[in-house]
Please model this.
Amino acid sequence: MKIKIGVIFGGESVEHEISVISAIQAMKALDEEKYEIVPIYISKDREWYTGDLLKDIDLYKDFDNLKKYAKNIVLYNKEGSFVLQSKKGLKKIVNEIDLVFPIMHGTNGEDGSIQGYLNMLGIPYAESNLYAATIGQDKVFQKQILQSEGLPVADYTWFFDNEYLEDFNSIKKRVKEIGYPVIVKPSRLGSSIGIKIAKNEEVLKSAIDEAIRYDDKILIEKMINNLVELNCAVLGNKEQVETSLIEEVLATDELLSYKDKYIGEKKTKGMLSTNRIIPADISKKTEKEIYELSKKTFRSLNFSGIVRIDYLMDCKTNKIYINEVNTIPGSLSFYLWDKENKNYTKLLDEIINIAIKDYKTKSNKTYSFEINILKNYSGLKGKKGKLKF
Model:
């Protein structure tokens, strides 16, 4: 019997369209001999849809027209079965799923929101859990944990938007201590959205203003000199990890932009639109260092499934810094693996196997007690605010 894989994608995020591309790439690569693929698309207005036609990228050229070819549904746990039920009309069960594969980028998906919802329903799912997803989405959380683990990150500062609006001078002093140029970015977004370079104090304000359009938490970090951007994917869980080939990403702009990442000759390529060198032209020493850092980072942040870790390197000093981690990377970074030993179909199969193993391990843990301490509860008695049992 085939395993029913519910691929959830889309969502209310500025990375919505990138999620659609990544999900359709994955659905085409999944082994249909092993899996029954059930698309679950979340629209920008948070409505959930399913239907086989959702596997066709052309359907998404007109989001309003798309709704004519898909069924509006809700996902819930019905007596231990995970069902998709039509939201309108007779409210029939239109499908069931065994495991969810979330391929969502950014807000309300990659940030732990969808993982928390799936946890509440008790549905097994692929990729990192709620805690790791939250850390993966928040770049400030990441840096704070990586620093505590003694892993290299660039000098940085951070603040909330109200702090900036109330005391910009204090922000300027902190940035001056780091030293210009700096990179200003929303703490909890991806795909290079809202990121600007500030080479001096005059440009700093406009860069921050751009970032707070997308987030109320802002990260400012020192820009690395003689910059080379390197990426490495990691596959595994707490028990074992495997690293991919390392890529060097070539930006056409001063900073790798949304356009560099996703807008190539064919917009349906996702991260494949980016100009890159695979494997990167780096020394064996640098390669070894990145592999070691990748494994330590994966463990420190409690990841599972596949992640992509982005690095910054000063090519003159060969000093390496961990830039950020993507818990659901664009195109799931399938292009970073040796196609002869691990093509996309095999990679997806391994991610699903890891998810099943993690779910079995989690199922053996205790999350509630059989005893009901409220059974003999007699109500509030005595002093105000105190409970008496």
